[in-house]
Each structure stands twice: as C-alpha cells, then as structure tokens.
C-alpha cells in the first residue's frame, strides 16, 4: 500500500526510476499516458522499429515535444527527457536503466530482449505474454539467478488473476478456480482478421478511432489469448489446466461460484485448483446480463461451516450450497496500470506474477484444413488458434507452441481442429527463440507423478 510513497521518495531524492520501453503500440502508449503523470518515474528511452511511431504515441498521450527531445542517453540522464531510438540493444545497455518493458508482442523478440536485459542487470516487465508462455519459466529462473525481477505486466489480466490467487491464499482460502471473462462462441475458433470485428460486435468507428489491429484482436476472439493468459496464470500460481483445456462456459459474475466449481460438486470445471474463462454470450449468441467479458475472478472454498455461514450472511457471491464463493473485478485497465509492475519491481524487488513452473502450454491448432507448403501466420491469423493443454501432454504430443507458429512452412496436410506438432513444420533450430524453448523444455519438462510437468 506504499508504492506511491516510495516513488515520491525517489522523486524527492532526484533519483527517479529509469524505465526503458520497447514497443510503442497500444499497450505501450497506454503506459506512456500514465507514466507522464507518475511521480518518481523517468521514461529514459523508447525503442521502436519506427521512431516516428513512438513520437506519435507520445504526442497522442499528452506529452509535450520537449519531454522527448533528448539527443542521446547521456542527454536523457542529464535533462530528464526521453531518448527515442530504433536500437533496442542500445536501450537495454544504456547506463543507468533500471526497468525494461517489452511490449512488442513478438515472442522471439521478447525472449531476446529479456535475456539481454537480465544479462545487463535490468528488471524485466514482460507485457509480451506470448513470450512468457513459450519460455517464461526459464526466463524467470535466469532472472532470479541474476538477482533481478522478471514480472508479468500488471493491468494485463494474468497479473491481476495472480493477485486474486495470492490474496485468496494469503487470507487462508483454498483456490478452486481462477480466470477471466471473454466473448466466446465455438465458431469463433475459425475467426480471421477479416471477420474479427463482426464477431466482436464492435462499431467500425471505434475500431478506426483506436487504431485497433485486427490480427491482434482476433487472437482475443478466436480463443488464443485466453489459452495464453490462462497458461501464464497456471505457470505463475501452481494452478493446473483442465485436461481438455478451456471450456468457456457462459456465466454472469453472480454465477461464478456455481459454474466454476468442480464437476463433482455440481459445477463445470474438471478439478479444484484450475483455470477457466467464462463467456459473455450464450451458445445461442444471446447476451448474458452482468457478464464478465473484460473482468477477472477467483472462486474459493470454505473448509468450515462457520465460513460457509459468513458467505451466506454477507452475500459473498456464493454458490447454492454456500461452500464456494467468488470475488471478481469487473474490468482491467491494461497498460494504464502497468506502473504498478514497474514500481513493484524497482522498489520492492517483487514481480506482479512470475512463472514458478511449466504446468500449462498453448499449442497451435488448425482453424481450417491446412495444406503442405502453406506458411503459418501465427497468433490471430488465418491458419491456427492456440489451445491450452497440460504441459506434460504437450510434451508427450511434441506439440508446436503457438508462439512459434509464425513464418514456418507445413511439411504435410493438417486436418481442421488438429493440434500441430514440431514434426509438422520446418523448424529453424538455430533460432534463438527455438533454442530457448528447447532449453526450457529440458529444464522443466520432467513429468512428475501427478502428470503435470515438474517445477
């Protein structure tokens, strides 16, 4: 409860937290909007493949040109202004940088930036959850060994769900299920960038005003982002995925405890201690009142009658038996809240969620019949969507991680709905991302007695 006080102390000492941002897209721009008004924070530098894009993002989010007029990192240190560059390596190695944010959305780039950041003693905030699911357990281990923080990004749903889980356990509750909401229908697994806005039901004027990327947003509607985010939660909290992955049951926020409890207790999830994503629409496409489309939640269990009575007496969103109860957050502020991760890493030395094991994975799954010779276009594209599955099952299958299913060529035909394997594509084993993934599998991929990958 004292992060702002600690930031003020840094500001008063003339020693603000120096932050470097790689990627000035939507998430990065949202953070910049708030960093501008946050005490004790100096956006030391921004690296973007298109520096003019970074400048446009700063102007759009309320920055005066003088605040990003630094001509070098030395000048940025001397003046407190921000230096803009297209050289991410120079930013990572800049003298005095404390916190590095990767907001690129590219798994390969994110892994590369993270490793370089760790090598140079930087705390790393991984907005790039795609990179986290490909190799996060290994990256977090390397960061810990180097004495720096590796963290999921607060404001993004995985970190908020990790906070729910931590709150529940710190309060003495057993976590039954945790997750988020989304807009889901089984047909959306075939969604493409050409159909995404109809599936979202969004006005095209809103899309145009926000400069929204159809491929990126398609990953939310086709089920991929849900699989990625819930896998990040499993790997960070010790929750384990359901054997068949996510089921996306329709649910309102006041039905969470009833629906997201184990099947043995009358609910829909396979076991206690798992993740699930609930849909804001029914299977007939009708809307759900009091839905949780952009929110997060946790369901906890009472282990004593007294606690059950409390669930009932204080209307704590219980199920019909009062054995289970839910807590939810109706929305998340995405990059507008990212400063919590920055402050927590720099001032407390604590992540806002970080992988502790390899428990869940996301495997590329065919959206349609695919032909040998086709080049996969990755997350949110026309070819594949990402399905969550237990890590041990993914390793046994030899499944192709969704984050590495981009710009690779198919070696054989794939049926619609089939999970792809490494053997199905031409893999560049010299790729840094592939090498790190292989290293992560070797380090964490030993099945334990419970059938989950070891931590």
Concise structural overview:
The protein is α/β, with parallel strands linked by helices and 455 residues long. It is 36% helix and 16% strand. It starts with a helix and ends in an 11-residue tail after the last helix.
What does this structure look like?
The chain is of the alpha/beta class and 455 residues long. It has 3 domains: 165 residues, Rossmann fold (3-Layer(aba) Sandwich), CATH 3.40.50; 137 residues, no CATH class; 85 residues, Alpha-Beta Complex (Type Iii Antifreeze Protein Isoform Hplc 12), CATH 3.90.1210. Helix content is 36%, strand content 16%. The chain contains 17 helices and 14 strands. α7 links the parallel β5 and β6. The longest helix is centred in the N-terminal third of the chain and has 18 residues. The two termini are 31 Å apart.
Largest sheet: 6 strands, parallel
CATH superfamily of the largest domain: NAD(P)-binding Rossmann-like Domain
Overall pLDDT, averaged? 95
Strand content: 15-25%
Helix vs. strand class: alpha/beta
Helical segment tally?
17
Uncertain stretches of 5 or more adjacent residues: 447-454
CATH class of the largest domain: Alpha Beta
Radius of gyration: 22 Å
Q: What strand line-up does the widest sheet have?
A: 3-2-1-4-5-6
Q: Provide the domain count.
A: 3
User: Count of DSSP E strands?
Assistant: 14
Question: How do the helices and strands line up, and which of them pair or pack?
Answer:
Blueprint: H1 3-12, E1 17-22, H2 26-35, E2 41-47, H3 51-60, H4 73-79, E3 83-85, H5 88-93, E4 99-102, H6 107-119, E5 123-126, H7 129-146, E6 150-152, H8 157-170, E7 174-182, H9 196-200, H10 204-210, H11 214-221, H12 224-237, H13 256-259, E8 274-279, E9 296-301, H14 305-313, E10 324-329, H15 339-348, E11 360-366, E12 375-377, E13 384-390, H16 391-397, E14 406-409, H17 432-444
Parallel strand pairs: 1-2, 1-4, 2-3, 4-5, 5-6, 7-8
Antiparallel strand pairs: 7-9, 9-10, 11-13, 12-14
